[in-house]
Amino acid sequence: MKVYIKTYGCQMNERDSNALGAALLQRGYELTDNEKEADILLFNTCSVREQAELKAIGKVGILKKLKKVRPHILIGMLGCMAQSKGNTLLEKLPHLDFVIGTDQLQKLPDIIEMELAKREQLSFTETNTDISQSMAQHLETNSVSDFIAIMRGCDMFCSYCIVPYVRGREKSREIAEIADEAKKLADKGIKEIMLLGQNVSAFGLEQNSKTRPSESPFADLLREINSIKGIERVRFISPHPFFFNDKLINTIAECEKVCNNIHLPLQSGSNRILKLMNRRYDSAMYMEIVKKLKKIVPDITFSTDVIVAFPGETDEDFNCTRNIMNEVGFDNAYIFKYSPREGTPAAKYQDQIPQHIKEERNQILLADLKERTTEHNKLMEDRIFKILVEGPSQRNPERWCGRTTNNKVTVFDYNQSLKTGDIIEVHIDRSSSMTLFGSILNH
Ligand code: SAH
Ligand code: SF4
Ligand code: F3S
Known about the structure:
The protein is α/β, with parallel strands linked by helices. Among the domains are: 2-124, 3-Layer(aba) Sandwich (Rossmann fold), CATH 3.40.50; 384-441, CATH 2.40.50.140. The chain is built from twelve helices and 19 strands. A six-stranded parallel sheet has the order 2-1-3-4-5-6, with helices on both faces. The termini are far apart. The structure holds S-adenosyl-L-homocysteine (SAH), iron/sulfur cluster and FE3-S4 cluster. Iron/sulfur cluster (SF4) binds next to helix 5.
């Protein structure tokens, strides 16, 4: 039987879908990228913005026709929106067979068997605190990198965010178990590990710490992964600035495999808005982390998440965001227009901002960002960087591409001795706002 899995949302969902795919293969199912030939269609959903929800609901909605022609197929919705809207989805989409929330995903193979035996709409959305091995399987891949989920859930309750409601309480895995997973990936030829969590800098800490901790179990984890033979690069998303302390900053500088590109969500540059967002840092604290890292980590680059037009955001607040973004000089930024999420405090705040202002502020930040990245990429010209080779470039398969440690996509001519996973030295000849173009040295 063939299974099609479509994933919406963040890397955490990608990781979950990957683990579920591997579990289904083990049970004798086949995976397919072609939904038309699938017997079982699964949609791993996201609730973080309204757009993400509408996309998945729209997609499953139009499958009603397919089910008329092929009544034997099973359709399931999984993950974050299944968690928050489970029964509503089943009512709204009568051709939907089952919903499985974020804490019950590991039961998917059993649930499919149950559904195949007796076809009725079922919902599995109970919460569960056990996050041991069950979701640690990986699909085989030709890629040089893979994800490891080091924790699940989030306890931060930022006032705009639905994640704590759909992913439940923060739970960290054991360092030894994570290291074991990383070693297995290294044995299969994976060179780069991306450690995933909604709040990785709080990994392994006591819950709900009111004061900024001086310890950092996450730093200990980085050291452990840094020591694994075969792993060449370690990246992570997303750390929260509140837990990004000196111990973590120094560990990043000391661990040679931990990459000099940090994704540090800013959300806003206005202290007034940061407070309303319940982010637990101000712009000065954020800049202090950036400055310390810039001082001790050579060629470091930063990326971020920003929300424009949070309720009540004035021109002045927006300009604070614009200024701090230019001051940091991000090399990438995910800029989101605020989307009210039912059940979160900010959805009830007065002064929701009209759509045209959301649009305008979004465009301004995107234009600034492009200017900054063009400038930064120019500064990388005529220098030599180590590139982890990924494979043929999408635009032109006669050229190959890879990344610098600070996460710049770099394109170079193919030569016959090149293999995916090689680390090569490349001289940067020219650049654009998105890409570096270079020549390979001695390979
Ligand atoms: N845990 C991560 C992010 C998870 S959600 C962190 O704290 O950085 C990914 C991003 O979506 C957030 O960083 C935020 O910028 C954005 N986001 C979350 N809720 C949103 C909302 N209601 N409207 C618009 N963007 C939102
Ligand atoms: Fe959402 Fe905040 Fe948790 Fe990130 S830290 S997932 S933005 S509540
Ligand atoms: Fe979306 Fe869930 Fe990730 S809400 S952003 S898929 S944690």
